[in-house]
């Protein structure tokens, strides 16, 4: 498969939002309260893209996934209840969503692998992320890919499980 991972453009907001809307609906159908409070929304996607943090996963030019990827850009992580594995620079990602037609193919893991490559290309060896307590799919992915539970962080009044993965350093 010819997957590409690249920065999103403003003109792609409609396709990205369509993917996220279906993901929001799936979270609700799965009994999760994650993403059921008006977040994320098209304005969030636009801000991601404007600060060059919005990324798409494509297959033959078709957008099939979305995430936001930032470096050292999550103020709430300073307030962790628990302890991070490292205190160095880190890559953080939010809003991972896969197009409904491409579910079950391991594409969230594909996105996380691209994020690891992004981190290493920037000489950063820590990836931090969080998810809702009831997002079973993402919790399983974190476990499979070697993320370690570090504690809890809070967003919009709700506790989230906080994870970190330390990447091997090659000199």
TrEMBL record:
Coiled coil: none annotated. Residues 3-170 form the N-acetyltransferase domain. PROSITE patterns: GNAT. Gene3D superfamilies: 3.40.630.30. CDD domains: NAT_SF (cd04301). Pfam families: Acetyltransf_1. Keywords: Acyltransferase, Transferase. It comes from the Bacteria. The keyword Transferase applies. GO terms for molecular function: acyltransferase activity, transferring groups other than amino-acyl groups. The keyword Transferase applies. This is N-acetyltransferase. It comes from Flavobacterium flevense.
């Amino acid at each position: 498969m010819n997957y590409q991972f690249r920065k999103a453009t403003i003109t792609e907001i409609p396709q990205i939002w369509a993917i996220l809307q279906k993901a929001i609906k799936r979270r609700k159908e799965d009994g999760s309260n994650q993403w059921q409070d008006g977040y994320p929304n098209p304005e969030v996607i636009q801000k991601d893209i404007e600060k060059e943090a919005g990324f798409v996963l494509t297959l033959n030019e078709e957008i099939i996934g979305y995430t936001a990827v930032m470096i050292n850009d999550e103020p709430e992580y300073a307030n962790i209840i628990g302890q991070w594995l490292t205190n160095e620079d880190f890559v953080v990602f939010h809003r991972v969503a896969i197009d409904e037609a491409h579910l079950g193919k391991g594409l969230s893991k594909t996105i996380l692998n691209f994020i690891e490559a992004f981190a290493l290309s920037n000489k950063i060896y820590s990836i931090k992320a969080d998810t809702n307590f009831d997002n079973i799919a993402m919790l399983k992915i974190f476990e499979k890919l070697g993320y370690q539970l570090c504690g809890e962080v809070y967003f919009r009044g709700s506790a989230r499980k906080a994870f970190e993965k330390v990447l091997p350093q090659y000199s």
